[in-house]
Amino acid sequence: MTSLAAKATALLDLHTAPELLKVVNVWDVITAKVVADVEGTRALATASHSIAASYGYPDGEQIPVDLMIEAVGRIAAAVDLPVTADLEGGYGDAGETVRKAIGVGIVGANLEDQMKPLSESVAAVEAAMKAGEAEGVAFVLNARTDAFVKAGDRDPAEVLADAITRGKAYLDAGAPVVFVPGKLDEAAVEALVEAYGPRRLTVIGAPGSLPLARLEELGVARVSYGPFSQRVALTALEDLVLDVIAGGGLPADVRPLN
């Protein structure tokens, strides 16, 4: 699969298929290669938090946009699978950022609304989709609403209503799928799928999340893992350091993956 247009179409097909698309997020070339080489991996997703951390930046669009684009481009160039990138809130210009991402081989992206005014967020979605059209790819925008992650102590019913209103607006603006991160119970997932339609909702896998098989049954399109995959890797590294300091050594099941 070499054509960007073909990769974009394949990525969209993976979201609309009956099977839940499972993507374990990566943050550099070696993690991309390790994940891509695992049988059953169909696409890759980057994690902006993890990429920023690997360069010494905090999350939240603190990393320079050109450095983020370079990082996701290196990942896309290292594998033959479709790659969708976490582009945070678009770094001040969603359309231009998506255009740059497509230029380095990216065929989909997360775009956060950061709970900005809805009209502003819809305009960002429209700009991102127009950038894909201009570049000749069916860009798979995963329009993200932060209704749940920024909920605070708001009434859960109001938060869910916000997520539904915002997600439907992004779908109307052309986004093929909507990302609602947060710890969602089954009732919330059911309500979101009913509002958006089947295979239009993507969620994050976190401790305590619904089982993957149940998400598939409920009609969710995709599950990803954001910074959690990097945290798993860093936990293993810290455990090794602790064991070495205590007089131990390498675990017996280390595999030469690089």
What percent of the residues sit in helical stretches (DSSP H or I)? Answer: 40-55%
* DSSP strand content: 5-15%
Helix and strand element order: HEHEHHEHEHEHEHEHEH
Give the radius of gyration: 18 Å
**Helix-strand makeup class:** alpha/beta
Biggest beta-sheet profile = 8 strands, parallel
What does this molecule look like?
The protein is an alpha/beta fold and 258 residues long. Strand 4, helix 6 and strand 5 form a beta-alpha-beta unit. Helix 2 packs parallel to helix 4, helix 4 runs parallel beside helix 5 and helix 5 runs parallel beside helix 6. The model has no long low-confidence stretch (mean pLDDT 97).
Task: Give a quick rundown of the structure.
The protein is α/β, with parallel strands linked by helices. The chain has 10 helices and 8 strands.
Compile the SSE list and pairings:
Blueprint: H1 4-16, E1 21-23, H2 29-36, E2 44-45, H3 48-54, H4 65-78, E3 83-86, H5 94-103, E4 108-112, H6 118-134, E5 140-144, H7 156-172, E6 177-179, H8 186-196, E7 201-204, H9 212-218, E8 222-224, H10 228-245
Parallel strand pairs: 1-8, 2-3, 3-4, 4-5, 5-6, 6-7, 7-8
Helix pairs in contact: 2-4, 4-5, 5-6, 7-8
What descriptive keywords fit this protein?
47% helix; single chain; alpha/beta; 258 residues
